[in-house]
Amino acid sequence: MLEKENVLNEIIEYYLASHDFNGLPIYQMECYDYKLLCDLIDDGLIEVLSEKDVINPHIKGFDLDIPLKHQKNNISTNANYSVLYPTRKALEPISVDHNHPYTAIMQKGEAQFKIIFFNIEILERYANNPKFLIMDIGYRGNIYPKDEFCEDKTIEDEYIKDYGMAYIDGDVFERSIGVFICDLAKLKSQKQMLWKGFELSNQDACKINPGFVQNLIFGEWVTKAWIFHALIDEMIVINKQCENMGIPKLFNKTFGTHFSKMPEGYRNILLPTLKNYYDFVLVLEKLVVHNLSYKTFQKSAPYIGDITRYDESGKEKGSLTMFEEWLRKNIRTKENLTEIIIKPLRKIRSIRQKPAHELTSNRYDIYLYQKQIDLMNDTYSAIRAIRLFFANHPLAKDVQVPEYLISGKDIVSY
After folding, report:
1. Which residues, other chains included, contact 382 with Cβ-Cβ below 8 Å and sequence gap of 6+?
2. Is 97 exposed, middle or buried (0-12, 13-18, 19+ CB in 10 A)?
């Protein structure tokens, strides 16, 4: 005759020995006994997940608080597609491996998709190490070693399948990151301890970006567009407009929005330091300002007049000076083109010149997060304005523009 202890031990042993802390399918049980299982449910020692309750009952993603009667109905026969898990109460006596702190939490019955929040500084380890790649799409990202370093023993399969951009409650905008505990539990001991050192003490004050949950938990598309991607798409459209208008492309080079096709360093700054901020401004200056083509302004075309490369003294004009002169000559509007387009671009160059010509000291400044957001917003507004003005040219009207750029809605910073 079976005893409750035998039935419970089978469930516990399967859970702890499984690859991803999986539940025991009822149809695989050696010690199936409906009455004993019902007693264990009543005692709060096991819980049942069924395909009727979740998409994948083989992992316990969340604490669902399923009614006991419903759980019992789902195990009324071992032919049902139901999966059994030990509860936290049942796992209390279990000895855990404290050298693997996140594995230890899973061994105590934590839900797979519990999010642990970390100081964003942990990402600096990967961003500044050429052995790793960070796939950053704003609201979430991935960390993995480059192919040529996968066998490097110092890395030890160091791979974070998904991290989410998160925010710390407070008067000042401050970022953190969130990671599913099931991904942390897969790291080797040394790396789990490394991450543990960056774990935030104020977990309850952290909020994950909704897109992370929407995408990875509910499997839904995130319809909001990252402003970093929108800026690249605007530049692509502008170059197509130039082609249709019969003038050279405004930007010498354009990029793609896939992380592998974006300029390195073109993303949210991680740790808010002056060095990181200036490094980002350098990238933005190369992407937008230094990337302007002088040839665009020197070619006449229908409804477009050219300007000369040199001023009256024979000195070469700068790209922004030429652009400003060209805009005044070719666009009739009551709008202040210098204020809308040229001034934001000059601001990028002005910020860029400070570290280029002065010795500066690095410092931590939480307000740099907002400064970067403001700079990106101003830059995007300027580039978008160029596209809108160019769209008035009769030969540019047929250029296809992504709908989200036309509406201008849901273009966000993360």
Report:
1. 340, 341, 342, 343, 344, 345
2. exposed
pLDDT band at 106 (very low <50, low <70, confident <90, very high): very high
Tell me the CA distances in angstroms from 287 to 98, 235, 379, one per residue in order.
47, 10, 11
User: Which of 320, 350, 324 minimizes the C-alpha distance to 337?
Assistant: 324
63 burial level (CB within 10 Å; 0-12, 13-18, 19+):
middle
Secondary structure of 52-67 in HEC code, one letter for each residue: CCCCCCCCCCCCCCCC
pLDDT of 357: 72
The whole-number average pLDDT for the span 211-235 is: 95
CA separation for the pair 14, 317 (Å, rounded): 74
CB proximity list for 356: less than 8 A, separation 6 or greater: none
Q: Are 259 and 248 in contact (CB under 8 A)?
A: no
Of 357, 350, 404, 403, give the one whose Cα is nearest residue 379.
Answer: 350
Which residue spans within 323-398 are E strands per DSSP? none
Distance of alpha carbon 241 from alpha carbon 222, whole angstroms? 28
H or E segment at 337? Answer: helix 337-337
Please state, in angstroms and rounded to a whole number, the distance separating the CA atoms of residues 26 and 71.
12
**Can you give the pLDDT at residue 394?**
96
Mean pLDDT of 250-277: 96
Sign of dihedral through CA atoms 213, 215, 218, 222? positive
> Which residues does residue 342 pair with via DSSP β-bridges, in sequence order?
none
93, 182 Cβ separation under 8 angstroms: no
DSSP 224-269: -EEHHHHHHHHHHHHHHHHHHHTS--SBS----SSGGGSPTT-S--
Placement of tokens 């030990």 in the chain: 86
- What's the burial of 295, exposed, middle or buried (CB within 10 Å: 0-12/13-18/19+)? middle
Q: Is 138 exposed, middle or buried (0-12, 13-18, 19+ CB in 10 A)?
A: buried
The 3-state DSSP class for residue 80 equals coil
Let me know: does 254 contact 236? Beta carbons within 8 Å. yes
Q: How many CB atoms lie within 10 A of CB 106?
A: 24
Q: Determine contact, residues 268/166, Cβ cutoff 8 Å.
A: no
